[in-house]
Specification:
Elements: H1 5-11, E1 15-20, H2 25-36, E2 40-47, E3 58-62, E4 79-82, H3 88-91, H4 94-114, E5 119-123, H5 135-148, E6 154-158, E7 163-164, H6 172-186, E8 196-197, H7 198-209, E9 217-220, H8 222-226
Parallel strand pairs: 1-2, 1-4, 2-3, 4-5, 5-6, 6-9, 7-8
Helix pairs in contact: 2-7, 4-5
């Protein structure tokens, strides 16, 4: 069934979106798209540092992530987009990265679920696997498994390939990785791992939330996400 613009807006009318990780690369794109989307009447973001952005639909909650329970009353809405994450370098250690990427995200999602938020969209990672011998994919896989047990009506897990961030947020290692994958792609190799702009991922997430999928759990592999570019 083809959804028209008017039917989409009517279906999602007055939707209140919550965004975690709103100042990161993907989160910034999600917020930007939601603020432009007439189907969303309110966008609430939860950040450590306030971004320099103002909009009549936007509510900014500056929070201390180590005291998330203090903000439980504000974690209410219709859909939660979770794009929180850090790197091992920025975090300083594996325990600190785990705290941000797993502990904070899971605690926030749990509160959202208990507060009646119906839909949850998570930015995970390609290769995520709770049984992986490697730290990062194991952590991402463990979060996915924990999230699946929460009481959301619908859960959307996105496992994107290498992401192309906004220029000012692109790290040196990412620039090298993008160039390497681009060369392989030109040779017809690793097409399922083709670098993906964060703007494409953000739009795909919003589109899937408004789709007519009846599945309680929806997993999007790199191939499924890349299809949004076609």
């Amino acid at each position: 069934m083809v959804r028209t613009a008017n039917s989409y807006i009517e279906t999602m009318k007055n939707t209140h979106a919550l965004v975690l990780g709103a100042t990161g690369a993907t989160g910034r794109e999600i917020v930007s798209l939601l603020l432009k989307d007439p189907a969303y009447s309110k966008v609430s973001i939860f950040v450590r540092n306030k971004p320099n952005i103002k909009h009549k639909k936007l509510s900014i909650h500056q929070i201390d992530f180590s005291r998330l329970s203090d903000y439980c009353e504000f974690i209410k809405g219709d859909v939660l987009f979770s794009a929180l994450g850090t790197t091992l370098k920025d975090a300083g250690s594996k325990p600190q990265q785990y705290l941000v990427d797993y502990t904070y995200q899971y605690a926030f999602a749990k509160m959202a679920s208990e507060n009646g938020v119906k839909h949850y969209a998570l930015v995970s990672s390609t290769g995520s696997n709770e049984n992986s011998p490697f730290f990062y994919p194991k952590m991402k896989g463990a979060l996915e498994e924990a999230i699946k047990k929460l009481d959301f009506e619908k859960t959307y897990v996105f496992q994107p390939p290498f992401l192309i961030r906004q220029t000012e947020l692109t790290r040196t290692g990412e620039k090298i990785g993008i160039k390497v994958f681009s060369v392989f792609n030109q040779l017809g190799l690793l097409k399922s791992q083709k670098p993906l702009p964060v703007s494409t991922l953000a739009q795909k997430m919003i589109d899937e939330i408004s789709s007519e999928s009846t599945a309680r759990l929806n997993i999007y592999t790199p191939k499924a996400i890349l299809a949004a570019q076609l």
